[in-house]
Amino acid sequence: MLGCTVPTIGGLPKGFSWARKWGCECIQIYVTLSRRWDVPGLSEEEVFKFKSAWQDSPVKKVVAHVPYLVNLASPDKNLWQKSKERLRIELSRAGQFGVNFLVLHPGSYGNSNKLDGMKRTIEAIHAISNASDNQKTQILLETMAGQGTSIGSTFEEIAYILEEINNPEFIGVCFDTAHIFAAGYDIRGYKNYEMVLTEFDEIIGLNKMKAIHVNDSRANLGSRSDRHACIGEGKLGLEIFQAIMKDTRFLTIPKILEIPERGKRSEDNLRLLRKLQLISGHLPKSKNLQKQLIRKELYVNIS
Ligand SMILES: [Zn+2]
Description:
Cofactor: Zn(2+)
Binding site for Zn(2+) 3: 179, 226, 228
Radius of gyration: 19 Å
Bound molecules: zinc ion
InterPro entries: AP_endonuc_2, AP_endonuc_F2_Zn_BS, Xyl_isomerase-like_sf, Xyl_isomerase-like_TIM-brl
Strand content: 5-15%
Domain Xylose isomerase-like TIM barrel: 16-276
Number of helices: 10
Shape: globular
CATH class: Alpha Beta
GO molecular function: endonuclease activity
């Protein structure tokens, strides 16, 4: 199942028009205003409009992203409280809209230490899970690049949080290809892809992976820098994207493209990913041959 982050200027239902235009089977949106702490009320009419736009679209699953303002690992008591309350609102709103998954960054520990940060994240998620009656939406911890003091850049950290929360119905994982590469997992090439997935399976469990962010990375391996690139234009190479697209274990889980300039480039990047899925066998090793093969029918680089 393939899709991307869609623009929602003019209201959330507009996201489904982009999905139709770009042929997305899944989309990612924010269900609140992502840069603001205040969250305006939601009317029944808005919910109705969202659901009917969804029904009239090719979208099977909707993923929501928790705003970056939220930091559940923060040592600042006030920010931690606000973040917890916002996560509660995000989850409740996602439930009203019938959203399937809510992607969450595990947080940054700031001037404290990593273990205390992880404990605060766990405590906040625990509190939310006990208070929530939303049966529809599953929270997904995103694998992170490891920028600054962020947690969740190793499979062990993600596994630790999941084990402590111990509620597999309530929480799973969103695997971000650009982030794990920047975090130091080399997923370039078919063999490495399998090795990294085997490691993920041993430490976290592949059954916990509920969504994938398919992004190339402008940042180098192990740079701990979070810089997404268009598919085939970063450091990852095309092999991993072909492997993911063809991987029968992930056919039914949302694969979401999150690239810069999404308005201009989403359509051709989605087309490239679909094309990679159709190519049988491995891609040729030569970058030039790869480019020719990709360009041949469907893919035209419009940049
Ligand atoms: Zn991501």
